[in-house]
Amino acid sequence: MEPESELAELRQAIEKLTARVSRLEVTHPPSQDRAPVPLPPPPVSPLPVAPPSPATDASAPSAPPHLDRDLESRIGSHWLNRIGITALLIGVAYFLKLAFDNDWIGASGRVAIGLVAGIALVLWSERFYGKGYKAFSHSLTAAGAGILYLSLWAAFQLYKLVPNPVAFFAMMAVTAFTGLLALRRDAEMIAAVALVGGFSTPILLSTGQNRPIALFTYVLLLDVATAVLVAMRPWGRLLLGSFFGTMTLYLGWANRFGLRNEDRTIAFVFSTLFFLVFAIIPLLKPIQRDWATSLRAHGLPRSLLALALLNAGVYFVQVYQLTDDVRAADDVRAFVAAGLGAFYIALASLLRRTDGESGVMDLPHAQLNPWLHLAIGLGFLTIAIPLKLHSHWITIGWLLEAAAILYVAHRAGSRFLRNAAICGLALGVFRLLLVDDFYSQHLLFNARFATYLVALAVMAGIRISLRQDPSEGREKAEWFAGIAFNALALVALGAEVRDYFARQMVPLGVWTPAEAQRRYDLTVARDFTFSALAMAYGAALMTVGFWRKRALLRWQAMVLLALAIAKVFLYDVRELSSGFRVLSFIVLGALLLAVSFAYQKDWIDLGKTNDR
Prior knowledge:
mainly alpha
């Protein structure tokens, strides 16, 4: 062979190898911790080298980035797959509709086609799952299960081909098989399909008859099965799904058939069983062992916390509704509330002990679970008091509940519980200001002022808790709590002044000029007392503000003094008698001069003011 032809063949082989390596580097980029093996340089030849072919030209465009390849792969393997399945199912549905409309296929044939198609899709999904196409196989399984449910529904409701028990047990079999398939594949999506199908079965097979025992027994079995499923896999969202499914069927039954006397006992028994199933969920050991993983991956603890609050609240509302026509209903409700309080306190203690033994308490946020159960228990105990005692004890109960939750929040370091305490406080204050109707016969020593003191104590505790919170936005919340505290204190003192003079203005007999003069003098004294209260409270705030070096208190004092100034100059100068008018101006002037002198002497370093 001639040297020139041999050199040309060698050059072509090198070019092919270079192009092949380039393609391999594009499809399989080298790892960052291992450098690619360099290619050996081409042999040096004394003959002139031909220009490189277009396939290896350095100016050729580079391969697309790795991100683009991932996006392309995701679109091609996932989205096109799902769209294709959807299009295929729609096409089959249109074909079946056309066949049904033209009577090409009878009722039995239609149901048989649906059952065969559903089973085929599930079996087909197994094949793809074995090859590693998990997302594709899960989609096929969900579609197959849905077709099976609809086919069984059509066999019973539309075509009357099978009796209700046969369709019911067939749907139960589909639910059980789908749940086992979810466990085997470790697929939460398939478990959710099983859960939706299970709770849809009573709706799909409803005959319109009132059979609460059969319905609630089935729902109870579903709840227990869900608890077992969650104990084996950390799928906390299934718990909320099962809870809402249970409540949906319960409310649907109650709305359709009403709560007749003969059904109230059945509803109460099963409501209690539902409550107990969801209440003991946190005691399951597998959940505790998977807590740390679930916290990061599945959000299980959040589901448990939400479930604990919902379960307790919904059950008490159910009991409240079921005891509407019961004699001494408030006594029964108070007894149930006290029992729930004791139950949750015992459950909190048990959770704390079992969590400590298993090492769960060392995990982040794990201590919140027993503390939350304790807060719920204390809340029920406080609810039991107003249910038994009525009137303003309801307000006190809400305020004490807020205090209990605040204590728990402080011990657990939970912002969530602290916000719950704020909501409880707001509810109590709302009732105190707008609902409760007090009649007091003594100044300060009365039920209303005692209730205000409870509210002020809880508000002070919330402000202290906010002061120890390092999170962003803490200062604004603390300022608002301080302002609300002083405003509520002024309302409480103002109400005492108002009622004191109202008691003095009760007519003493026949309406005479002397009686009219007495009422006028009392009105003047009351108006002056309001001004004196504002000035005294403002002076106290200013004094504490200077002493504690807190600008917020001093600003509140100045606002209050400004209101006092406006009242003295705009109202007192016209309405008060000469003596009270003189006294108002002298007191106000002296107070303002004292405050001004304190600022001018700069007894505090305003640059070092502590706003906390």
